[in-house]
């Protein structure tokens, strides 16, 4: 794909994200997204033949921005507890600093449906837990810095807390970013650490 086409495609995705954040999924039509970007519907459908493809691209793009953001926080850390703290902090900080992407993901995941009317993102993607499970197993099996627990259950719990805060953060219902991040990070630090008898 040439650079000009990539730029246009990216701009359409960003315009879609803006419409989703400002007007919601119901108003995120190809026409409204084209209007937001000052282009014709034909230009949008050239890159994304239908709304489903565009909405899936919105989710992929938004998650794609979060991954390198989080990696910067975790690079070079030499212990599992520090890496777990960085994972949680960076995920929450990304949400606070980029609420429109959080809103866009929520809107699409909650509304995008298949031709049969089922939610497209109904089936949970287990791969989202893999980075956390790796961190938790590192702390249990290699460092022995974490107590005994099920890495999958703990990973699900961490993600559940983070994901439940997404809508509140995106709607600006939580104003104190630093204390919120600190509280969640400390909670899982205590929940996972190995205690001495």
TrEMBL record:
It comes from the Bacteria. InterPro entries: DNA-bd_HTH_TetR-type_CS, Homeodomain-like_sf, HTH-type_Tx_Regulator, HTH_TetR. PROSITE patterns: HTH_TETR_1, HTH_TETR_2. Keywords: DNA-binding, Repressor. The keyword DNA-binding applies. Residues 6-66 form the HTH tetR-type domain. Gene3D superfamilies: Tetracycline Repressor, domain 2. SUPFAM superfamilies: Homeodomain-like. The keyword Methyltransferase does not apply. Residues 29-48 bind DNA. PANTHER family: ACREF/ENVCD OPERON REPRESSOR-RELATED, ACREF_ENVCD OPERON REPRESSOR-RELATED. This is HTH tetR-type domain-containing protein.
